[in-house]
Specification:
- Chain B: It holds the Pfam family Sigma70_r4_2.
- The complex is a heterodimer of chains A (about 80) and B (about 220).
- Chain A is an all-alpha fold.
- Helices cover about 70% and strands about 0% of the residues of chain A.
- In chain A, helix 3 packs across helix 4.
- With about 220 residues, chain B is mainly alpha-helical.
- Chain B folds into two domains: about 70 residues, Rna Polymerase Sigma Factor, Chain: A (Orthogonal Bundle), CATH 1.10.1740.10; about 120 residues, Orthogonal Bundle (Arc Repressor Mutant, subunit A).
- Chain B is built from ten helices and no strands.
- In chain B, helix 1 packs across helix 3 and helix 9 packs across helix 10.
- The longest helix of chain B is centred in the N-terminal third of the chain and has 26 residues.
- At the A-B interface, helix 4 and helix 5 of A face helix 1, helix 2, helix 6, helix 7 and helix 8 of B.
Chain lengths: ~80, ~220
């Protein structure tokens, strides 16, 4: 692991979505985490974006109608 | 084709397990239930036809979503599909535009003591249908990456592979898509009278400073 640097708000916010999307390597992730521990404003921003992302993830699941469920089972049954 | 009963059982079980997610994604891609049902059914039928080519069964979910996405994008089923020109136009529209952030509109540092602040209050009031409407209003190229990442949890690399574009393109479309989504949510909320915009001339010093008070 590379040396952990202290980063400022601008750098932390630039990386925020990569961080929330789990797209950062360990060093860069740790740097963001360190900043979020000491900066209340960026921490609040991160919490907001994380919750909004959670709301979006919930929209990604939608039970189909019973009728469509039967249609898919019939389709699968024919394979 | 004579199918192996074990293959068939694996396929059926996997599809049934993923059905709510497949339908959720299809619904946001097509924006109506009838088309979403046809899209899922077509993708499942195509997937079965190609199943023998799937080497690693651990990749089933990504593989099936890739088929779903490609089925959605295939021009023959949708004559009014988004053209490369329309996409370039949508991207150019956002060129140079600063990312829209609900947080920045609402956050008031001197109100941190207030149960998470107005931005958390905003999230508490936003309904699922508000989010669906804001998603449906996104240009297709942006909606696609937001659906695949925020709704379905695929990594930038997985999405890049599905769409055949570089990872950097996924990242920039995602960032623009999220900005447009937040803007749409914000405008819907404003039109519904949900949140009063922060007064332009708000002076933090005029508000009683309560930090360090009894929490």
């Amino acid at each position: 692991m590379n040396k952990i640097r202290l980063i400022g708000c601008e750098e932390a916010l630039n990386r925020l979505f990569d961080y929330l999307d789990h797209e950062l390597d360990e060093t860069r992730r740790t740097e963001v985490e360190q900043h979020l521990k000491i900066c209340r404003s960026c921490y609040s921003r991160a919490e907001f974006e994380k919750r909004l992302k959670g709301r979006l993830t919930a929209v990604g699941t939608e039970p189909p109608s019973d009728e469509f469920g039967r249609r898919i089972r019939a389709l699968l049954g024919g394979f | 084709m004579k199918s192996d009963p074990e293959d068939r059982a694996f396929f059926e079980q996997s599809v049934v397990q993923l059905l709510d997610r497949l339908f959720g994604a299809a619904l946001r891609l097509t924006r109506n239930r009838a088309d979403a049902e046809d899209l899922v059914a077509e993708a499942v039928a195509k997937a079965w036809a190609q199943f023998a080519a799937l080497r690693d069964r651990n990749c089933f979910r990504g593989w099936l979503f890739r088929i779903l996405t490609n089925t959605f994008l295939s021009a023959c089923r949708r004559p009014h599909t988004v053209s490369i020109e329309a996409l370039a136009e949508a991207e150019a529209d956002c060129e140079g535009e600063a990312a829209f952030s609900i947080f920045e509109r609402l956050h008031q540092p001197f109100l941190l003591w207030w149960d998470g602040g107005p931005e958390q209050d905003f999230l508490n009031k936003v309904l699922r249908e508000d989010i669906e409407r804001a998603l449906d209003a996104l240009p297709e190229a942006f909606r696609l990456v937001v659906v695949l990442n925020d709704l379905e949890g695929f990594s930038y690399q997985e999405i890049a592979d599905m769409l055949g574009v570089p990872v950097g393109t996924v990242r920039s479309r995602l960032s623009r898509g999220r900005s447009a989504l937040q803007k749409a949510l914000w405008e819907q909320a404003r039109d519904a009278g949900l949140s009063a915009p922060k007064p332009e001339s708000a002076d933090p010093r005029s508000v009683e400073h309560t930090e360090g008070g009894s929490l």
